[in-house]
Each structure stands twice: as structure tokens, then as C-alpha cells.
Amino acid sequence: PWNYYITSVSTLFPGAGGWSPLESDKHQWLQIDLRERMEVSGIAVQGRHGSSDWVTSFLLMFSDTDSGWKQYQQDDSLWDLPGNSDADGVVHYKFPQSIKTRFLKFIPLEWSPGGGIGMRVEVYGCTYKSDVADFDGRSSLLYRFNQKSMSTVKDVISLKFKSKHSEGVLVHGEGQRGDYITLELHRGTLALHINLDDAKLQSSASHLSVTLGSLLDDQHWHSVLIERFNKQINFTVDKHTQHFRTKGSCDSLEIDYELSFGGIPLPGKPGTFLRKNFHGCIENLYYNGVNIIDLAKRRKPQIYTGNVTFSCSNPRITPVTFLSHASSYLLLPSESLPEGLTVRFQFRTWNRDGLLLHTHVLPKSESLLLYLSSGRLKLTHQKSVLDKMEITTGHGLGDGLWHTVSLSTRGFQVSVRLDNDMPNVLESNSVIGSGDSFFFGGCPATLNDLNCRSPTLAFQGCMRLIFINNQPINFFQVQQGLLGNFSDIQIDVCGIRDRCLPNYCEHGGQCSQSWSTFHCDCSGTGYTGATCHNSIYEPSCEAYRHTGSTSGYFSIDSDGSGPLGPTLVYCNITEDKIWTVMNHHNMAFTRVQGSNPERPYTMQFNYSTSREQLQAVVSAAEHCEQEIMYRCWKSRLLNTQDGSPFSWWIGRTSEKQTYWSGSSPGILQCECGLEENCMDMNYFCNCDADREEWATDAGLLTYKEHLPVSQIVIGDTDRPDSEAFYRVGPLKCYGDRNFWNSASFNKEASYLNFPTFHAELSADISFYFKTTSDSGIFLENLGTKDFIRIELSSPVEVTFSFDVGNGAVQLTVKSPNPLNDKQWHYVKAERNTKEASLQVDQLPIKFKEAPADGHLRLQLTSQLFVGGTISRQKGFLGCIRSLMLNGLTLNLEERAKMTPGVRPGCPGHCSSYSSFCQNGGKCTEKYNGYSCDCTYSAYVGPFCKKEVSALFEADSSVTLTFQEPSLDKWNKSTQSSLIFSETSKSRESISFSFLTARTPAMLFFLNTYHQEYMAVILSRNGSLQIWYRLNKLKEPDVFFTNTVNLANAQVHQVRINREGRDIYIDQNVNTRYTLSSDSELTAINSLTLGKTTGSPSMDREVMFAGMQGFIGCLSSVQFNQIAPLKAALHQQAGALVTVKGHLLESNCGSSIPADLNTFTTTHSLSDHSEKADNEREPLMNAIQSDSAVIGGVIAVVIFITFCIIAVMTRFLHLQRNMHQAVSKDKEHREGLERALRNDVDLQSTVGCNKKEYFI
After folding, report:
1. How far is it, in rounded angstroms, from Cα 34 to Cα 6?
2. Per residue in 317-371, pLDDT tens?
3. Start and end of every EGF-like domain (predicted)?
4. Is the pLDDT of residue 1224 over 60?
5. Please, what is the Cα angle at 762 between 761 and 764, to 5 degrees?
């Protein structure tokens, strides 16, 4: 190591000296000339000895020349280097990557508040040697091979380059068969084009182009490394690397004769890219270990040198950076010329808007404005407030590239030219001359000229090569205050940055940028947020269930914000177990013939998702299964003499599995072998009996570590008459181990510890908690200086705090209600390169933007502590569930089993989720979650939300029979006790929905052993009537609720509530009706829906309605806690239910049908025996009919003919047995359809609204 310091800078040891400018302001700097390019590895700074002068923060700049400086940056962001806090302390900086430079510049930003600027500096490093070549845009180096063609499977090309031009070929080689490799600078980025395949045999699809880097025409050195092995390529530019594979089938790169560097000397073959030659410098150019520039300098014969010099020319170009969109400007004076003006300059920016130039022209009342508007260049000739002319040219000028603008006036014309386009001209009615001042980038706030400020914001970007009236501007005079004036600009620096490199937009989000920030377009990615970090999909079907979703296809994202994308699955949300179903491409029965152990049949199953996504779904599930069926005719599975199986399957582990349908790993058997019921007890599979008859081995594979089935191999179907059919069903899983994974923290000093949370650029943390404590730490992870923490800071506040090196940041969400209410509450905290956010339940999200040029990386080193921390005494008391960090769920339960003071699991889910169980459903606790018990509800489904509906005919009825209350048998039953406990208080609660077009109709009838009854009917005019006969010796109470015709083929809801003598009706306005008696309906005999038989106690109108029955739909019938329709349709055990006539389960209670056919039949109370037999028949028919297709030999045809005759005989026999039941079923449907259509055209009722009546 060596140190270098100029005369005015003392060494960093006690003693006098140091640099201290006469004035302490932000225009001072210290520049060091190292005399030649050096490799600088670090610096140290100190204040001026024995004084109150030191620098507290500064910028470090470097350059090969004493112009065109570049700011040192680390961690992919520009940031100020902290300095000293006193005069004699030493602050060291060791650079992670050395700087190759000759000049260093220190620019103080802040200094001692009680003194001024003072610095002592020491620089550490070593000598840097390199071989350099200068290319003038017409020159190149040719490296000729020793043989005609060079074929390689491994290549390494490395070099460094710098240029002020955005186009140029750096490396090119090609072969006669179409191979080529080209590295070129294009629009300021590097593009690598490569093809390894024969162009004559392959299409253009084998050609590959990859771009990397940005703003590479900045006249600073950039390093390039290309490593290729076969098809695998690593492409590195500076610190950014892309890994990719070439297309096509070939592995070698075949190049003829030579490889060129710096350009293409002659028009090439079809693979040649017609581009400009490189204009700039290249150093340390190596091809497969050969130093190309060294060979050229030594004039070796394998190198052809064309107009290349071996020292790097450094054209002196002074850029200017405009830093602020509000206050930056550069004022340049010029001589006033009546005959006209010319202005020329170059600019580059990411902004779409900004003022480039404003100047007054002769006559003095007029002005010219040149500015960017929506990425286009606009020129405005302002004659007065109301009189102006405009022209517009170009597009997309906020692309970060250098653009050249020329503005000139001559006579009555004003012209503007952009890059190499044709000039655009404005015509004036007077001669336009040059004014004496030009404002570039903006105007000072003190300038009283609205025209200068009004068109747009000030310019943020870089300008260079400014000429006014053909005279170049001397920026060093501007910098020294000898020429013009300026504000908020940097001279001799172009501070443009590509904020999209690296691309912080995740999951394929498209990055766009302005001068000060970047934006991510997440459209079509399936993710959202400032950096497209958060998945818009739920992680599982279980999670969709808790959003209230019903069965259907859903995209699930198993790892949330992790690298795995979403996948489409079917969620079966119709029962307590929520099934996730994933299909593959071959779900049908597949026939196999002609396979043997030497040439087995193989089928690869392609699922609708990737292997990694399948593994994530299976790993998170509690249980997975997959049906596999093998149907055979003289085709064995496992029965071989040497013990090796004929057939097997391969699962997720890519291992050969020999257990079948319903068996377990390691057991060479089928399900019948385990259950000891195989058709031949000498074998462990039905098919191993090897009989000339159809046999089946079918069952479920349930060892989820082997699922799903990815391949099946069958090897015994090539013997005469041997064949097999197989079917592998979809993968089905239920349960979400992550969603309910929880731990209970019982002591304040207890916590769980996990490995360090690595989330440098993006961190998202989500979990549920419930507690009764006032405060506590949910989690914490510390670094040397950085940290991240989430805590309950008060009973109503959750706080998220972190530090990435820019100072501690804190976000707090305050809840209007206490959070320590022993209810589950949701927390999600996120921190990325753009912003931080905190969400608690459904409260407004708290956001905080990240600084534009601060530290980006969160660097943590300690363990992650959950539920507490070693740095504080008070931890968290309560439960934490479903803790996810960047899409990875921490297994709290497993870690809690090994930690004192922490228990796995957390009871009491119903305290938070009981409201999810609707319509009288009861929440039931489970170890992992909860379920809804719909026993006493008229609804079904996971949340008791699905209506139970039935289609009635005129003769249809459902009767629930009760025995005498005195009889012990029924009185001891649950349902009976519920009935009589309710009715003993003179209360009835009845609710149901109905749809009909026929009157009169019996909807609901309840009678007792004492000849009392209660009935709900539709009268002849369609009005609803409620009849109560509480004493057989007295007249009944009859209530007419309305005169509206309810028999209008619309769905209506009825609710009746009785308390003593009062019946409550709610029809927009609460109304109470009064019975003549408060007698109880005791000793209930039966409850009937639909047609009833007459009895002496029934009044004539009720009896007539009962005899007419009900034609239409009844839905969700509830009497107190009894659901008679549900009991009838779902055949609940213990329910004494009698069904007469034809009853079809339907969805009519939840939608308005347009036609009878829209009633979807899902259940029938007809005889089921014939249906069961019929369901088995199609497979046999399909198999036997498929056998007929193989015919071709007369003997086989005769054999098949006999088989068909036998099958048809059996089929006709079955058909004859089924004919009567099928005819009856058809008559029922047609009769019901005629009954409804005769009264109303149901198609006209689709748009009608559902109506409710509360009684």
C-alpha cells in the first residue's frame, strides 16, 4: 500500500497542516492528481490539526482526466460519505471494489458548525497496469486463427471499454454454416447476439439476443465478461450478470478464419449485423486467455491492426447536470445580433417534461422557448400573451440518450432541428434577431417573466457541447463566477443514473423512470405494490374459503411474494374439507397394448403447473391423494418370477414406486392384498391372477411425499389377447398447514428464534395475533446497525420500525378499537426500495416513501426472534398464527415444541370466526382452525350458506312425524327436545322461500294430536294466509298479510315469529298481529310440506289448499331448529321423514329460472339401485367396444362378435328392468313442466326482484 497527498494536505498523523479554503461554502473542493492511473482501494479523512475545522459529510468523485467526473457509489445508490466529528479523529473507507483512476475530488457538503471546512486525506492503493487500444470508428483488430475454422465448446471473452458514442461493434465472429457471436454497443447498452446452430437447418428461432447495461456512452470505463460453456452463458457488464442458455441443438461455436474487435472490416455473410464500428478505447482485451492488444502492440502475425493506436485519447467534453426541477438554471450571456441567432447543444434526461431554453429575441417584446412536453420537443415563438406560434418534433425523448438540438433564426424564419431529422420551420412576420441572455434548464425565481416558467417544470438532466452563435461555452469560467450565473447545477459532471438497472420491479414488472425515481407497471403479472412484490391471489383454497368464495377455478400463489408464480387450480368448497384439485393432460381411460419389460409403455403426465408449484401445494397441505386405476385382461402388475414388477409409476421424488392403489410405500401389493380380498388369494393384486377376464386394481395413493404421479410404466400387454386400461386421476389435497400454523406465548421472557431474515431489497411480513396484553414485541431481527421490528406498542397501536442506514423509520397504525380484545387481528408490514407500509386489519394502510438516493439494502446478522427478544425484558403474551416472511411460512408449531414457555397451536378460533357460520350454523373448534356445524340449520356448505331447495309436483309432500311427547323414545331424541322446549313457551319460528305459479297451494302445515294446527297457504288470488287453530272448539285465527299475487313465478321469502299471542310481520314497516289465545301447540303430531290429506279439524279452505298440494320450489325450510326439507333430501339419520310423490333437489331457491330445464337436479329420491348398476356399465361397454376396433383377423372378429352378443343380451336385460323406472321419471318431469308452463311464461320473469315477507 502507498499513500499520496498534495502539499497542502498533511499525513494523517499528529502535526500541523491540512486543507482549509478561504471561504467555507458548497463551491469548494479538493482535487488530488495521482500522476497516473492507479488502483485505489480505500481512503481516510481527518480534520485540520489543532482547529475547529473538519468536514462531516462529502462526495467523492474520480476521473481519468481532470474533467468528466463520476461520483463514487456503493450499494447501487449515490450517497454522501460521512466524515469526521472532530479535528483529529480518523475515518477510514475501504472500497468493496477498487477504483481505477488518476484524479480524485473531494467535495465537502457539511462541515463543523463552529468552524469551517478542513481536511487531511490519505489514499490507499497500488499501481495499475493495462494494455489499451484506441479505435477511431473506422479501425479494428483482427485475430486470425491458425486453422481455417475454430470450433469451441467453451469461450471466455473479457475487456473494458469507454466511449462517448452510443453505437459500435466491439466483438464479431461468424462461420460459414451460420454460427456467429456479436457484442455491440447499441443505444448506450450492450447487446450480445449469438447463434450456435446451422442456419440452413434451423429457423431464426435459434438466434438469441440479450441486452445488459445502460448509459454506457458516459466516457467512463465499463467491464465486460462473457463466459460460455456449451449452451450455458454468463454475461456480465460491470456488476450486473445475466445467466441464460442458447437455443437450438448444437453446443459448439464454429467461427471461420478470424475474430474482429472494434468493428466489422468488410460487409459480412448473412449473419453479419450491419452496425457502426466502435469509437472509443478498449483495454485488457482477452479471448480465451490470449491478450489481443498485447499481440497487436508486439506486431504478431496473427493480429491485423488497422488504424489502431495504443494510448487512449480523452476528448475534453464538459457536461452540466441540472439537479432540481424547481430551481436549476444556467444563465449565459451573449452579444446581441440583429441578423439572427444560432444555438446548439446536446441533452439527456429521463423526464418527459422540462424547460430546455428560454431567450428574448429582437424585437425585445418577443421570446423563444424550447422545452420537452410529454417526451416531445416543442418550440414556441411568443410574440405576446395572446399571440404565439408552436411547432413540435420528435417523440420519446426522455429515454436517457443524448439528443442534439439546433435552433436558429434567419430573416423571418425560425428553425429547429432534432438529431439527424429534417429542420422544422416557423414563419414570422418580422426579422428575428438574437437577444443578449440565454436561460438553459430553467429561470430564476426572481425573473419577472411568466413565459419562462409557465410552460413546464425546470429541466432535470445533463447538457453538453453548448454553442451560442457558434461560440463554445467555457464552463470553467462559469464555475469560477467569471461568466453568467447558475443555481443547483453540477459542472463537469453528468449525474444521470439508470434507476431501472438493476430492475427492482419483481415478478416481471416493467420498470420506467424519471430523473429522481422509478415506477413499476405490474399489469398482467399477478402481483401488485410499488415493486410488484405482493401477490393478488390467495395462497390456498383454504384462504379463498375465508373470503366467502364458493367452488370454482382460482389462481393460488403458494409462496405469496416468493419466486413461484400463481397457478390455476379447482377449489372444491362444498364441505368441511376444502379440496384443491390439480388436473393433468391425460385424465381419460387410456388403452395399452403391445408392451413388454424390454419395450414398456410410458406416459409422462403434464400438470397445469410447474414442478416447484406442485411441491409447494403438496407440502402445505395436510393430506393429498390421487386415484389410480388399472383394468386388465391378461395383464399383470407385479407377478414376475424374479420379483421385479411389470409396471410401476414415478412420483415427485423421481423414484420408481412399485406399490399400487391403496397400498403404502415399500409394500409390493395392491389394496386388495392389504385387505385380503383379491380375486386369487395367491396374489396381492387382482390383475396378477392373469385371467382372461376383466379385473381391476383401483384405489387412492395417499403418501403425499411421492405425489403427484408424474409417469406410469406398463410392461405386460404384448401377449395374445392381452390388454389394459389405466386412469390416473387429478391430484387432490385438503388442509392448509400454513394458514393455521400457530404458537401460544405464555411467558414474557419466552420467544422463538429462527435463522436470520435475509431480505436486503424487499421484506414483507404478515401474521395474525390475538392477546390481552397492552404491549409486546411480535418479532425483531438486528444487524450491526440495521434492524427491523414489529410490536404492539399500546393496546390500540401497532408499530413497524426499521433502519437500512438512512436513520430509523417508524410507521404506526392506530386502531379506534382495542387490539388486545382476544380476537384475531391481521398485520402486514412491507419495506422495499421505494416505500414502506403497515396494514392492520382493514384500517387505512400507512405509507412512507424511501429517500431517492439513500441506502437500499437491509443487512441483518442476528437470529430472528419471534414473540420477544433478548434485548428487552417484556415479550409478547398471546398467540401468533400464519407468520409469513417473503412468502415463506415459519413453522411456529415445530419450534414451539422445543421451547419452554411456548406451546404449539392456539385454541379459540371461534371467538373470531363464529360470524362466518351463517343461518344458524354453529362454530366448532378444531386443532387447526374451525368448522361450521349446520345440523340445526336449513342450509348446508362450509359456512351454512348454501340453500337446500326442492322441486315439488302436485302429489309431492314431505312429512316429518313426531310421536307423543309422553313416549320416551321420541322425547329423548335431540330433535324432539328442541321442538317441545321451544313450543312450551308458546313460540314458533318458521322461515322458508318458495316459487310457484299455481293457486291455491299448501306451503306449510303443522298439526298436533289434539286436533290443533297451524298452516301457511296461498289463497286463490295468490295472497299469503296464516291460519292458527289453537282450540278445536273455537274459530281459527286467520291473517291476510297482503293482497299481492305471490304466485307470479318469483322467489319470495316468508318469516313467521310468534311469541305468546303476538305474531310479528315486517313488510317495510314493523306490524304486530294478535292471536285470540296464547295457547301452546303441544303434542305435535307432524309437519308437512306440500300436499296434505284432510282431517276433521281442518277448515274447508285449508283442506282445499292441502288437497291441491304445491307445484313449484320450496327452499331452506326451518321450523324452530328443525329443517324438514333438508332432512328429507339429505336423509339425515334419526329423522322420521316420509316422502310421497316425486321430489327433486334443485337450485330454484337461489336463482330465478328462465325455463324448467334450468332447475339442476342433483338428488332424487327415486330408486337408486338401477342407477348404481348403470354407472358401472359404460366402462365395460367402452372397453369391449374398443376391443372390436382391433379386428382384422377373421378369428378375432368372430370372437368379438360372440362377446358383443353376450354384452347386448346383458344390456337388453338391464334396459328392460330399467324401462319402467325411466318412463316414470320422464312422466314426472314432463307433467311438472306442463303444470308450470300452463300458468306462466317463466322466461319473462328473469329480471324480477326477489321479495321477502317477515311474519
Report:
1. 9
2. 999 999 998 889 999 999 888 888 999 999 999 999 999 999 988 877 788 999 9
3. 496-533, 907-945
4. no
5. 155
Report how far residue 518's alpha carbon sits from residue 398's, in angstroms, rounded to the nearest whole number: 13
Q: What's the CA gap between 241 and 212, in Å, rounded?
A: 8
Query: How does residue 960 score in pLDDT terms, banded at 50, 70 and 90?
Result: confident
* Segment 535-556 mean pLDDT: 88
Contact 951, 957 (CB under 8 A): no
Distance, in Å, from the CA atom of 1072 to the CA atom of 1168, rounded to the nearest integer, reads 48
- The CA-atom distances, in angstroms, between 812 and each of 409, 794, 838, 851 are 60, 10, 7, 19
User: Is 310 in contact with 297 (CB distance < 8 Å)?
Assistant: yes
Map residue 1013 onto helix, strand or coil.
Answer: strand
Q: How far apart are CA 1209 and CA 1103, in angstroms?
A: 51
Q: What is residue 687's DSSP assignment? A: G
Candidates 104, 142, 155, 163; CA nearest to 283 is 163
Which grid cell is 912? 373470531
Helices marked H in 1120-1193 = 1124-1130, 1169-1189
Any idea which of 178-182, 206-210, 765-769 has the lowest mean pLDDT? 206-210
**Cα separation of 995 and 749, whole Å?**
63
Q: What pLDDT sits at residue 475?
A: 92
Whole-structure pTM value: 0.74
Residues 906-943 as b or e (16 or more Cβ within 10 Å = b): beebbebbeebbebbbebeeeebbbbbebebbbbbbbb
The amino acid that residue 528 corresponds to is: T
> If we measure between CA atoms, which residue out of 171, 515, 164, 570 comes closest to residue 324?
515
Specify the pLDDT at position 186. 93
Q: What is the pLDDT of residues 765-793, one digit of tens each?
A: 999 999 999 999 999 999 988 999 999 99
Helix (H, G, I), strand (E, B) or coil at 1204: helix
Specify the pLDDT at position 1204: 59
Average pLDDT estimate for 823-839: 93
Burial of 528 (0-12, 13-18, 19+ CB in 10 A): middle
**Residue 643: pLDDT over 90:** no
Q: How far is residue 1090's CA from residue 958's CA, in Å, rounded to a whole number?
A: 7
With residues binned 3-state (H G I as helix, E B as strand, rest as coil), the percentages for the chain, rounded to 5, are 15, 40, 45
> Side chain identity at 1108, as an amino acid letter?
Q
Q: Which long-range contacts (CB under 8 A, 24 or more apart) does 223-226 make?
A: 223/158, 223/159, 223/160, 224/157, 224/158, 224/159, 224/160, 224/161, 224/170, 224/183, 224/190, 225/156, 225/157, 225/158, 226/155, 226/156, 226/157, 226/158, 226/183, 226/192
391 pLDDT band, cuts 50/70/90, is: very high
pLDDT of residue 315: 84
455's grid cell: 410552460
CB-based contact 136:279 (threshold 8 Å): yes
Q: Name the average pLDDT for the chain.
A: 83
Do the bridges between strand 376-382 and strand 140-152 make them parallel or antiparallel, or are there none, so unpaired?
A: unpaired
Measured CA distances, 727 to 81, 584, 630, 692, 967 (Å): 68, 11, 7, 21, 55
1186 within 8 A of 983, measured Cβ to Cβ: no
Residues 428 and 454: beta-carbon distance below 8 Å? no
Q: What is the pLDDT of residue 985?
A: 47
Q: What is the pLDDT of residue 880?
A: 94
User: Cell for 282?
Assistant: 478498449
Q: Answer for the pair 984, 1058: CB distance below 8 angstroms, yes or no.
A: no
What is the rounded distance in angstroms from the CA atom of residue 702 to the CA atom of residue 657? 13
- CB atoms near residue 840 (< 10 Å): 23
Asked whether the beta carbons of 725 and 712 are under 8 A apart, the reply is no
